[in-house]
Amino acid sequence: MTELRGALIGCGFFAVNQMHAWRDIAGAGITAICDRDPARLAAVGDQFGIAARYADAEAMLAAEKPDFVDIATTVASHRPLVELAARHRVPVICQKPFAAGMADARAMVAACEAAGVPLMVHENFRWQSPIQAVRAAIDSGAIGTPFFGRISFRSAYDVFSGQPYLAEGKRFIVEDLGIHSLDIARFLLGDVTRLTARLRRVNPAIRGEDVATMLLDHENGTTSIVDCSYATKLAVEPFPETLVEIDGSEGSIRLAQGYHMTVTGRDGTRHLDVSPRLLPWASRPWHNIQESVAAIQQHWIDCLRVGRESATSGHDNLKTLALVEAAYQGAASGEPVDLAEI
Ligand code: NAD
Ligand code: 89V
User: Fold this and answer.
1) What backbone torsions phi and psi does residue 232 show, to the nearest 5 degrees?
2) Relative orientation angle of helices 38-48 and 15-24, to the nearest 10 degrees
3) Cβ atoms 323, 182 nearer than 8 A
4) Which of 82, 237, 278, 306 has a C-alpha 20 to 30 A away from that of 119?
5) 105-108: which pairs have CB atoms within 8 A and are 24 or more residues apart?
6) Is 13 in the pocket of ligand 1 (CB under 6 A)?
């Protein structure tokens, strides 16, 4: 099998995880990197032994002609870089949040479609093994038909030291973290017709909201609560665990802190340890996220090889991003938001 040659743009805080994961992906590797910050370019180039280093993404794509590009920059550069990849006819992965607004996101999807270029958003939380275990339990039919869900992420972990820009943006928790929780809600319970949101800021040292409570009406009639907080001080810090409750006509699923899953159905109750693997390069507590990075990157390569649309394609991610927009609009107006109007 020929190795697919990838090029990475953005050598910052999170890209290091992506670079570690690429080393383990069957059938692909990163052969060129780009960052406009020379120190970051040198650090990642030296750590992963990549000699082809560029300060300019266009120069890299023109010279390297990679089989795919992995964009790991922050949101402001996503549209120009995705459109650049489309112009060069290079399949593209783009980190979340895909865009700062729907107009940019739709333009990026349209540019890739027009160029015939596959596009995947690196929306990795649904690839976490505990979340996949919840989905498998639903799909098994053990709890019957779901009618209620709760997707919850509550923490006081200091995310600002690693990602200082998170303290500076007008938008914070829904755009950065709630986006993952909303995507998990779609993944587990289906697409959404209406969303009601309440947001607030508790930490006075940051600019955006750090607490969000959202009520979702799903197309299939299920109701869910998606709640997230970076202002919740608990006895045992759960970062970065997403806790899940699903109630169904025949039973229930609980994904509790410590990666304990309980499935109650017609045949009784099963207690399962759904802890993520600690990959050799990973470190706690990030190992749950790090494992999902490897999973989504392998999924991308598997899809690229056979020409299949990825689970979190640009097209799919428009629906997750629309929930983010709906949360901000709904919190501002105090009214429920119809997703058809986003
Ligand atoms: P960062 O600021 O640490 O790194 C971004 C890097 O991109 C910087 O080194 C910057 O110089 C470079 N860059 C920006 N624009 C560029 C351009 N046009 N050309 C070349 N280089 C450019 O940011 P980060 O914390 O690594 O976050 C990057 C993205 O990853 C964000 O969108 C963030 O939301 C996302 N993220 C995702 C997860 C996840 O689990 N999926 C976790 C953390 C961060
Ligand atoms: O996953 C993320 O997108 C990260 C963090 C977990 C810190 O919110 O930004």
Assistant:
1) -110, 105
2) 20
3) yes
4) 278
5) 105/314, 105/317, 105/318, 105/321, 106/318, 107/79, 107/83, 108/78, 108/79, 108/82, 108/83, 108/314
6) yes
| Longest Cα separation, the chain | 60
pLDDT digits (tens, 9 = 90+) for 113-171: 999 999 999 999 999 999 999 999 999 999 999 999 999 999 999 999 999 999 999 99
Please state the separation of Cα 166 from the chain's center in Å.
16
Task: Please work out whether the CB of residue 177 comes within 6 Å of at least one atom of ligand 2.
Answer: yes
Name the nearest CA neighbour of 226 among 185, 192, 188. 185
pLDDT digits over 50-91, tens only?
999 999 999 999 999 999 999 999 999 999 999 999 999 999
d(CA 202, CA 223): 27
CA distance 47 to 15: 12
Domains of the chain by start residue, with CATH: 4-117 (3.40.50.720), 126-281+320-341 (3.30.360.10)
74 lines ligand 2 (CB under 6 A): no
User: Closest residue (by CA) to atom 7 of ligand 2?
Assistant: 159
